[in-house]
Amino acid sequence: MSYLFIDTCAGAGVALVNPEDPSETLVKVNPDGKAQVEALSSLVADVVQEGGRPEKIVVSRGPAPFTGLRVGLVTARTLGFAWDVPVLGVDELLLQAQAAAGVLSGADCPSRARGETPRWIVSLMDARRHEVYAGLFRPNPAGGPVSQCGTDWVGSAGLLKDITQGWDRDFTGFADGRVFLVGNAATQITGQTVDVRFADLARAATSLVNGAAGDTEAPQELALQSTEPQYLRRPDIQQKS
Hints:
Universal bacterial protein YeaZ, single chain, ATPase_NBD, 34% helix
């Protein structure tokens, strides 16, 4: 079984993943955040031509800016209908944190070599207008899915310290060596960052879907099934000047 992963939260990326052997991952990425519409269809065509038609589609449902997010979701739904395969959505901030947890657990990870055990992962994605989408997560020591503290949030990065302490009263701040930042807005906060590749995101997405599939009543499963977009605020065109 293979999964097609689509993410248009920042640029456009497509991957074909074999869950039984995640090393077999085909990746095509266009990092231009203003060219998702033009790029996505050709990326999908290239991956499917090389790796074949998938049995499932997994798509990021944000939070992300309006236009790019819609491109990915509409494409995923259209392909799912045309190919008659299931389409599952996954939260982008959860996805970033899960991918970061995988990188941090790797034997060649520098922080692991220094004996630093991650206690929190903060996902930060660019929301434009000098704001970020953010979420606070705790890694699973057993290597399973990360758990979220609080909810997805959008606002100024300068307010994030107070927000995160509200999500988890044990949170000690971004200077703590056990806190790791991930996402394309991670550099807006001073702290340790984790670099994840698109292949890491794709493998994290399939692991989250597979992990939730065993319990159809679990809230995580219901969230993963949804392909409704998460904007967290109205589209820019609707904002008052």
